[in-house]
What does this fold into?
Amino acid sequence: MKKLLVLIMALTMTLSLAACGGSDSAPATSPSTSAQVENTEFTAEQQALAQDFMSMAEEFDAIADKVNASPELLENEELVTAMNDLSSEIIKADEYFASPETLTPEVMGALTVAIEVGRSFIAEAGAALDEVSQ
It folds into this structure.
C-alpha cells in the first residue's frame, strides 16, 4: 500500500511539473489572435501525445473503478485522498490539450514524462489491487 501511495504522489508531482511548464508571459489577445487559434491545427506529434494521454487516463479510470468497487480500499482515507488528488492533476493536465499553442515543447516533454510515470503507477497499482483481491 505504501508503494501505491508513493507512486500516486510521484505522478501527482510530475503532473504538477507539467502544469508549471508553460510560458510565464501571457500572450496578448486580439481578434486576429483568436482567429489564428481557431485556424491552427494540432501537429501529428501533439495528436499522438493526446491519444497517449487519453489512453493513460482511461487506464487510471479502470484502476479507480477497482478501488471504488472495494469497500476495504474505500475505507483507506489516505488512498482515497491520493486517488482524488491524482484525478485532479490528470484533469488539470488535460487542459493543455485545449489548444495547440499550449502544447509547447517543454509542456509536451513534461506530459510525456507524466504519462510514463502514470503508466508505471497503473501497472504497480493493478498488481497491488490484484494481490488485495486474492
Summary: Residues 22-37 have pLDDT under 50 and may be disordered. Helices lie at 2-20, 31-39, 44-68, 71-74, 77-94, 105-133. Residues 14 and 111 are 8 Å apart (CA to CA). The two ends are 15 Å apart (CA to CA).
